[in-house]
Design a protein that fits this description.
With about 325 residues, the chain is of the alpha+beta class. The chain contains 6 helices and 14 strands.
């Protein structure tokens, strides 16, 4: 095709002996390594005019031909999706993210995300992190509900990212997990990284990134346990992987769970219940609690657990 990009690997490129899917991001910054690997497998990236595998080694003098249309993405459009507001001021707002709503779009997912909803909200948003992450300073898994902090201004985005980096945003989750798990405080200190054979999953790995989760039992029965969970690190799928590592996966988790629950639920039962931090500009303590959705309330009734109270242990002026 006339729009194909061509690369000749020279000595100055310093990629001799590398895998093709690792070498190309050094030559072209138009896509991630994962996207590049998919394009290679689809035959949209050729090495010396031949289809090869992503792991094929490249050498000085090789040529690479790339079809950039493979990486074209659909534009992001506003969508009228409700974002229940828990707190709002001129710099930031906190929503109660519904389960099933993805935090931000990806190359393959362009609809039904918080960003699509934000575009339709009429509110200002920070553009500091690019159009894929308008106002997004942290994320929740798609099926995890609860408190999500959004930046309206660039100064807020910078300040909030620093608060997350220094662990000054305090997050408390509520989880329903499989089986009876009774503990008055178990710290799971297990490093996490990408699963070696299932790249869509995370796993406990000796050389992974540090991850710390504290689990405390509220109530327990033979079928399930209601847990409070605090995290000081925010690794992908952290609570779900740590719970499964302890043989008590989150109820309804079709990725890390055992799929043996008597009751079926439309999403996994993990909820970002409370979020608190010192406001970077007003210097007031902001603390919010997110109500549970109907599916969670149904689970409390099915297992005979008391629904945690919204004002439980609340001492801060929240709104």
């Amino acid at each position: 095709m006339t729009n194909d990009l061509h690369f000749l690997i020279g000595d100055e490129d310093d990629v001799n002996g590398m895998r093709l899917d690792s070498a190309l991001p050094s030559l072209w910054d138009g896509a991630s390594r994962t996207q590049i690997a998919k394009a290679i497998s689809a035959g949209r990236i050729l090495l010396n005019e031949k289809r090869v595998k992503p792991r094929t080694i490249v050498h000085t003098g090789d040529t690479i031909r790339l079809d950039p249309t493979f990486f074209a993405v659909a534009p992001l459009l506003p969508e009228d999706i409700s974002l229940p507001v828990l707190y709002e001021d001129e710099d930031l707002w906190i929503i109660n993210k519904p389960p099933g709503l993805i935090t931000h779009p990806t190359a393959s997912v362009r609809t039904h995300t918080v960003v699509n909803a934000l575009l339709a909200s009429g509110r200002p948003y920070s553009t500091l992190l690019g159009e894929e992450r308008l106002g997004i300073v942290h994320r929740l898994d798609a099926q995890t509900s609860g408190t999500l902090l959004l930046a309206k201004t660039d100064r807020a985005a910078i300040a909030l990212q620093e608060l997350f980096r220094t662990h000054e945003v305090h997050k408390q989750y509520v989880a329903l997990v499989e089986g009876r798990w009774e503990t008055d405080g178990l710290v799971v200190d297990q490093p996490l990284g990408r699963h070696p054979t299932q790249p869509q999953k995370q796993a406990v790995l000796p050389d992974g990134r540090e991850a710390h989760s504290l689990f405390v039992t509220r109530e327990a029965c033979e079928e399930a346990s209601l847990m409070d969970v605090w995290i000081t690190t925010g690794r992908t799928h952290q609570i779900r992987v740590h719970a499964a590592y302890c043989k008590h996966p989150v109820v309804g988790d079709t990725v890390y769970g055992y799929r043996r629950q008597r009751h079926r639920f439309s999403h996994h039962l993990l909820h970002a219940w409370k979020l608190s931090f010192l406001h970077p500009f007003s210097h007031k303590m902001i603390a919010v609690t997110a109500p549970f959705d109907e599916e969670f309330q149904r689970a409390f009734a099915l297992y005979g657990f008391a629904e945690p109270s919204q004002d439980e242990n609340e001492t801060e002026d929240t709104k």
